[in-house]
Amino acid sequence: MIERWLIALATAFAAFAAANAWRSITSGARNRLTLPLLGATFIVQLMALGLRGDVRGACPLCDTGEILIFLSWSLVLFYLLVGAAYRLSLLGLFTAPVVVTLQAIALIPGMMSKQPTRVDSTQSWRETHAALSVLSFGALALAAVSGVMFVILDKLLKEKKFTSGLFNNLPSVHNLIDSTKRLLIIGLLILTIGIIAGFLAPSFEVNRHLIVAGIVWLAYAVFVSVTYVRGLPPRQIAFSSVILFGISLLAFGLI
Amino acid sequence: MKLFCLGLNHETAPVELREKVSIANTHLGIESSALVEGKPISEGVVISTCNRTEFYLAADSLEEAATTLADHLQNRFGVATDEHFYEKHAREAAVHLCRVVSGLNSMVLGETEIFGQVKKGYAAALEAGVTGGVLNRLFQRAFSVGKKVRNSTGIQEGQTSVGSVAVDLAEKIFGHLKDSQVMVIGAGEMSRTTAQSLLSRGAHSMFVTNRSYDKAVDLAAEMGGSAIRFDDWEESLKKVDIIISSTGAPHHVIGPAHIEKVRRKRKYRPLLMVDIAVPRDIDPAVGEIDEVYLYDVDGLQELAAEARLRRQEQIKLCEAIIEEELAKSQLPGL
Questions:
Q1: Distance between A80 CA and the closest CA of chain B, angstroms
Q2: Of B5, B50, B98, B318, which is the active-site residue?
Q3: Nearest-by-Cβ selection for B172 from A172, A177, A234
Q4: Is residue B195 packed enough to be buried (19+ CB in 10 Å), middle (13-18) or exposed (0-12)?
Q5: Which member of B111, B185, B186, B239 has the greatest number of CB atoms within 10 A?
Q6: How many whole angstroms separate alpha carbon A43 and alpha carbon B323?
Q7: How far is CA A154 from the centre of its chain?
Q8: Would you say the ipTM is above 0.90?
Q9: Does the annotation mark B5 as catalytic?
Q10: What would the pLDDT profile of A181-190 be if each residue is shown by its tens digit?
Q11: Domain annotation for chain B: domains and CATH numbers
């Protein structure tokens, strides 16, 4: 099963990216490798997902392992889009361990089917729904990562601890709030389209999954609306993005 | 050919003397030429900043060079080479130049401006055609040593003044400052200096308020900002990102209620507050508001002092690099 080896390779790249980011913080050296290493992670993940999708004859979201790999791929995708745009190179330090964790879980025997069966009949709306929903969680996960970075920077600023390598390498408060807010709205938009696609699927039915998805969507919709329309203190935005993401992941995990 | 250096700086001479031998950037080439023309000196470079003037010479006889330079200073500036001047020969002169270029002899240890100032002095002499095999190699080596010292030690890390610490914090909060609006409460010298630092790093508009409106108008004019009457400053709270306060008020001028009133209107944007006043103008409780980052003068001075201490600790390492690099190079004139 070559996909497992590819995922192991992608995990090694991500682990190396995290180690490199950490080294650059502690030594004060410029962080040049994190972005290309996560770029390599992205390509290898894509190859694994491509092979898996080919075997399945559908979007590779048929077992827990595939969902975790797809989620970590979308996380890296948004890191590459946002990290480069916002010069948030340190975002790699926080993103890479999440990718390593998700993929390490996916590699646990039993998580990814050793002999994936071909999906007999695919429904395009259902496929779109599944792919976009997981993709949206990539954006929402990265919003949570950016939120964690803000919480750390905010604590260092409030406690006047300005000499650590971490403080010097963290992006500005403004950049972190801005990227968190943008990732939240991107995630919500993709999730909305994903849910609409789910409604359009011929196999649509009211079940626990739909109820949880509806609650998650509503929670994010209210949170994003309040953030943009009324405004929220940055710390509340950061904490909410982390807590909401954690609860959503847990809720979907339980069903 | 021997290397010779004569100079004075902020540690050896008072400003009254330093200003007498101070040379404008535009005249450095002419002054370098004047050292050499018709004299027993083969090469000459003059460095002049607000804190130092130094003459680097290459001549066959050190005694002759010293006498000629002393006469030149007497005739040209009306200054006698007394105890305020230091004289360095051969290797000692080369080490001194490397220390100067590395910022080890500067008033603010490790400052970077001196590197460019020495380069200007050397470039002017080079253009005037009064440098040769000794000074060209010496200065080029000193520049590469200076770069190595700065890159491989922490000699220029951290900010050593209250103003620059405040600017660094502002950049950590807002990224670039070009969209940041600043309000200065109280037109004292410290707030003027800090505000100038912010403006120099891109802050784009400034409001000044003071109990004496005329003083606010003066400072606002100087900063290219606008003055606000003291009774009206609260109204501006909703649009500013940075507040610098240094009034002479014996009580708190800004309390949590002032900020709470405008939080919604500000959409909870981050607010940096720098309180330079003693007694403090801003109630410390303001710092407990989520999006407010409040720093007082003690905190900023502590940071500046820590940075100065960290730089002091790097001196030995810098000196070792200078010794090692000079030992590796076979400079003529040493």
A1: 20
A2: B50
A3: A172
A4: buried
A5: B185
A6: 49
A7: 23
A8: no
A9: no
A10: 999 999 999 9
A11: 2-155+314-328 (3.30.460.30), 162-305 (3.40.50.720)
